[in-house]
Amino acid sequence: MLTSRLAQDPALAPLVPRLAFALEIDRLKGVERRTWLADGSRRENSAEHSWHIATLALVLADLAPPGTDVDRVVRMLLVHDLVEIDAGDTFAFDAVGLTDRDARERLAADRLYALIPGGERLRALWEEFDAGETPDARYANALDRLAPLLLNLATEGGTWREHGVQRSAVRRRMAPIASGLAAIWPAVQAAIDDAVDAGWVGPD
């Protein structure tokens, strides 16, 4: 109703696609991830994950790679999972789902980022995150891996235990932390070994 009223006012009509986009991205709240909340009460959704890692970007800003624009990283992290509205969340250890994830997400990006004027700027952030080559993207990717690690440790293995994930697979998944958050990489490796010792992760 609000957008239809705005559309009647030529001065405000340009707001309509932006507000419609705001409603479209609300659907991200309904995309369930495999990761459990730290209290184990339920699984998180993709919107909560995006908020979590965007906040972590501020909390851990002093550990970001040299040349990182942390404010830009926050923007990147807030929009990079919007494609999951159409593509769904692909579990990091789902070998079958990963085979066509890129194609599904690219189709989603084609639709979603075209909904809003200037959407090419949002899409560029998504593309940069996926490429993982800039300091901003390396930091963003490290945070994207760190948050699920923390939640799996808090829930005594969480999805690792549920799906019988092995140490080598966890290490591969966490590898971006080595360059994007190098200061904590030794602690991450030790935490993975501790998870193996506790029986939360398979020893390979």
UniProtKB/TrEMBL annotation:
Keywords: Hydrolase, Metal-binding. GO terms for molecular function: 5'-deoxynucleotidase activity; metal ion binding. InterPro entries: HD_domain, YfbR/HDDC2. Residues 25-185 form the HD domain. It comes from the Bacteria. One of its GO terms (cellular component) is cytoplasm. PANTHER family: 5'-DEOXYNUCLEOTIDASE HDDC2. This is Hydrolase.
